[in-house]
């Protein structure tokens, strides 16, 4: 990355160079923990380096640069990933507004943990399933409107768009529904940090900041040139109190933020402002070549690419072109690894390849060639097993997680109330949550997913054949 984009890094180094550190961290910018780490600018809060939780200097200026690039009213840098943004955002939006939220059932486990920690009730909005790939579709504005009508006094609405697999919802429509009822909207856009104004002309339209969501959480590290664990929390709408958000970030986020991570976020902003238009144009061109090559595949399907188009999926409002969901199964994933590719996820028959504006120019061309080689020698993958239907919510997540529980065989758990989470990770969306009644079809559905190659996790460690349920 061009050093001219590293404004915050330069300011940190300048501030650190002129003083002998009688403060943390213990390496004192002299003893490298291991080769390659940026210990020379791993500093702590001083008058010159600012304080993330009460920023008035160089960190405040850096976050203002990022807010301007995304078109947000205010942006907070996060060094504990999108998870801390979801925890703090949900807490800030629900304090004093009521004890129940409306949330999409396909939210990441961090949303569930926020609801659990805050003792909140929830009315789930269950997106329709896409039978072809076995994934959740988009949340419709009408679904959110119906859920709010059934939940007078709802504190906020939480939806995920794009999803882990790249499914996009009509956030502008959902925001309009929420705004008409005076209910704040939080969008988990962890996988959509690349939805910003400069990307719109290259095909990435409909970002949650521009759509008017009140709070938007994004993981910069997922699709942009930033370090793992870096994320952004944007305030874009009128129904979130910035003071309440800052207070909750002070509660949930570390009080010792990493300055290399903060510098990475500012440098990412600078790179986007300088190189972003050319990089997004090149990314779109690479995806266009891949899309054309995918049209020749006979036995492999790529979600919303090649011969598979958006109209084939009535459950989808939109699909992120940067996510390549391949229907090739675990053997296909092994083949790709043998060809030198490491996919993001292997879950049942689906293999997820994540792209970004930073891929090498030939990466997707080589991937297309590898897929053609596999396609010529293998039959189509079997249809994916359906996702199990969510069980009836009997009590809050917090109440179920704290109640006396016992482990029973999974096959005998039907009708019992779960005391734990059951999920595939990734993507980290619970198939079953504490407080939900176990649907009779769940044991068979879980077995089908595992037989297809999906690794299921149990939060209480009862995998694979037991489940903790309320006594």
CATH topology of the largest domain: Aspartate Aminotransferase, domain 2
Give helix % range. Answer: 25-40%
CATH class of the largest domain: Alpha Beta
| Contiguous helical run count | 14
Count structural domains: 3
Poorly predicted regions are: none
Strand content is 15-25%
Mean pLDDT across residues: 95
In spatial order, strands of the major sheet run: 1-10-9-8-6-2-3
Global morphology: globular
Number of E-state strands: 20
Radius of gyration (Å): 23 Å
Rounded to the nearest angstrom, the distance between the terminal CA atoms is 57 Å
Structural class: alpha+beta
Structural descriptors:
Aspartate Aminotransferase, domain 1; Ornithine Decarboxylase, Chain A, domain 4; Aspartate Aminotransferase, domain 2; 471 residues; 34% helix; 7-stranded mixed β-sheet; 16% strand; 4-stranded antiparallel β-sheet
Walk me through the structure.
There is one protein chain. With 471 residues, the protein is of the alpha+beta class. It folds into three domains: 18-271, Aspartate Aminotransferase, domain 2, CATH 3.40.640.10; 283-375, Aspartate Aminotransferase, domain 1 (Alpha-Beta Complex), CATH 3.90.1150; 397-470, Orn/Lys/Arg decarboxylase, C-terminal domain (Ornithine Decarboxylase, Chain A, domain 4, Alpha-Beta Complex), CATH 3.90.100. 34% of the residues lie in helices and 16% in strands. Strands 1-10-9-8-6-2-3 form a seven-stranded mixed sheet, sandwiched between helices. α2 runs parallel beside α10 and α10 (259-294) crosses α12 (363-375).
């Amino acid at each position: 990355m061009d050093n001219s984009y590293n404004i915050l890094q330069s300011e940190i180094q300048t501030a650190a160079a002129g003083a002998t550190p009688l403060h943390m961290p213990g390496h004192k910018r002299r003893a490298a923990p291991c080769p390659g780490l940026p210990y020379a600018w791993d500093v702590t809060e001083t008058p010159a380096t600012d304080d993330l939780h009460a920023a008035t200097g160089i960190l405040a200026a850096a976050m203002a640069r990022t807010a301007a690039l995304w078109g947000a009213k205010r942006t907070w840098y996060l060094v504990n990933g999108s998870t801390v943004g979801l925890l703090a955002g949900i807490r800030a939006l629900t304090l004093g507004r009521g004890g129940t939220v409306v949330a999409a059932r396909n939210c990441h486990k961090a949303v569930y943990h926020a609801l659990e920690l805050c003792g909140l009730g929830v009315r789930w909005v269950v997106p329709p399933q896409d039978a072809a790939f076995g994934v959740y579709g988009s949340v419709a504005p009408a679904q959110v409107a119906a859920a709010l009508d059934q939940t007078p006094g709802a504190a906020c609405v939480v939806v995920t768009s794009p999803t882990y697999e790249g499914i996009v919802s009509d956030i502008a429509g959902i925001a309009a529904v929420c705004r008409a009822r005076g209910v704040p909207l939080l969008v988990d856009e962890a996988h959509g940090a690349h939805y910003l104004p400069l990307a719109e002309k290259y095909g990435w339209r409909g970002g949650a900041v521009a759509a008017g969501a009140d709070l938007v959480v994004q993981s910069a590290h997922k699709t942009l040139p930033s370090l793992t664990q870096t994320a952004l929390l944007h305030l874009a709408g009128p129904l979130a109190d910035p003071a309440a958000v800052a207070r909750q970030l002070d509660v949930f986020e570390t009080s010792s933020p990493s300055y290399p991570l903060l510098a990475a976020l500012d440098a990412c902003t600078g790179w986007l402002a300088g190189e972003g238009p050319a990089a997004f144009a090149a990314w779109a061109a690479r995806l266009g070549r891949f899309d054309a090559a995918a049209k020749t595949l006979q036995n492999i399907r790529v979600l919303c690419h090649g011969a598979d188009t958006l109209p084939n999926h009535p459950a989808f409002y939109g699909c992120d072109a940067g996510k390549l969901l391949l229907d090739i199964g675990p053997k296909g994933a092994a083949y790709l690894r043998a060809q030198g590719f490491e996919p993001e996820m292997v879950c049942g028959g689906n293999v997820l390849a994540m792209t970004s504006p930073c891929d090498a120019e030939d990466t997707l061309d080589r991937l297309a060639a590898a897929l053609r080689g596999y396609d010529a020698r293998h039959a189509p993958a079997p249809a994916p097993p359906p996702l199990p239907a969510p069980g009836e919510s009997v009590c809050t997540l917090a109440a179920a997680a704290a109640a006396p529980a016992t482990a029973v065989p999974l096959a005998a758990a039907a009708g019992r109330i779960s005391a734990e989470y059951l999920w595939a990770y990734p993507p980290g969306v619970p198939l079953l949550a504490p407080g939900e009644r176990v649907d009779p079809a769940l044991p068979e559905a879980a077995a089908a997913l595992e037989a297809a190659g999906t690794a299921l996790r149990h939060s209480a460690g009862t995998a694979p054949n037991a489940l903790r349920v309320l006594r």
